[in-house]
Amino acid sequence: KKLLASVALFPERAHLVGAYSLGKAQRVIALLREAGYDAPIYLHGAMDKITHYYESRGIALGELRPAKGMKKADLAGTITLAPPSATSDIWTRRFPDPVTAFASGWMRVRARARQRGVELPLVISDHADWDGLTATIEATGAGEVWVTHGQEDALVHWCKARGLAARPLDLVGYGDEEESEAVTADEAEA
User: Fold this and answer.
1) DSSP letter assigned to residue 105
2) Residues forming a β-bridge with 103
3) Own/partner pairs for 25-29, CB < 8 Å, 24+ apart?
4) For residue 115, what pLDDT is reported?
5) DSSP-assigned letter for residue 98
């Protein structure tokens, strides 16, 4: 809705959405279609093959067009999906006064959006919500659950309350870089 509101507000500008090519881009397209956006969506060349693969597997994504070869003026008021790195590349010069957007759960952190020069942060996370996560655990029929990150204590407690063996699985170097750096600094002082 935020992206579509911006397109309506700035019809003279192109909207470039940085999204990872596998999964995130197709999710953004599907969300746009669910919201009623039926205009063509343009794709960076790096997104073309994988997105068309989704369609070949029966996932309807509406009309998709390559951004390559389009006239600059014809891209006003359009939405183009590209790998995040392309939204700050020379490639963007082909678009009229582009609004740079980025679709990621990290866009919830304003500093991340500012660091990337994102004008329109779109908070779209790949992580499962609590209900989805617990439903998946129940659906697997697992007798033991190892939790890798997130709210380990809460999920371990939930599992144990249901008679499942559960424990946090501490992966070295995963998600705790700052914590390990602080420990190293403390150890160095000792």
Assistant:
1) G
2) 122
3) 25/50, 25/51, 25/81, 26/50, 26/51, 26/54, 26/59, 26/61, 27/103, 27/124, 28/81, 28/103, 28/122, 28/124, 29/61, 29/62, 29/64, 29/81
4) 65
5) P
Query: Is 47 within 8 Å of 24 (Cβ atoms)?
Result: no
- Per residue in 39-53, pLDDT (tens digit) is 999 999 999 999 999
CA within 13 Å, CB half, 4: 12
Asked whether the beta carbons of 111 and 28 are under 8 A apart, the reply is: no
Among positive and negative, which fits the CA dihedral 113, 118, 120, 125? negative
Q: What is the mean pLDDT of residues 5-26?
A: 93
Give the integer Cα–Cα distance in Å for 6 and 181. Answer: 41
Cβ 10 vs Cβ 2: under 8 Å: no
pLDDT tens column, 102-152: 988 777 666 666 767 788 878 787 666 777 888 889 999 999 999 876 667
Q: Which residue, among 21, 18, 19, 27, has the nearest Cα to 61 in the 3D structure?
A: 27
Burial class (CB in 10 A: 0-12, 13-18, 19+), 16: buried
